[in-house]
Design brief:
- By secondary structure, this protein is mainly α.
- Helix content is 54%, strand content 10%.
- The protein has a three-stranded parallel sheet with strand order 1-4-5. It has a two-stranded parallel ribbon with strand order 2-3.
Length: 125
Amino acid sequence: MILDTNAFSAMAEGESALEPILRQAAYVGVPVIVLGEYKFGIAQSRNLAQYERWLSEYLPGFRVLNLDEQTAHHYAEVHGELKTLGKPIPSNDVWIAALCRQHALPILTRDRHFDAVTGITRISW
């Protein structure tokens, strides 16, 4: 499964509802976009040191998913489909959805706008 930023942040906060979902996952990927959004968010936190410690401890256990030419192909498709439907989503989320399609993995997120993207499954908690 692929983690969206809200799932990644919930993990950092120790949200126990994620544990059974993550235990069942054969694979957990973190898009480089999620990593950037998370680092931006914690840079503004008064608990920066705590979140940086968490990140340095747990990030090695995940595969960071980078963007490549194949991702760009999926991005163009997803973006075009959502535009045709009149259901735009934030650009960073289009990239994340493209990674989900590329790797044929579901996304763990609370953001319902991912439901408009065909070919991916949204898992919530």
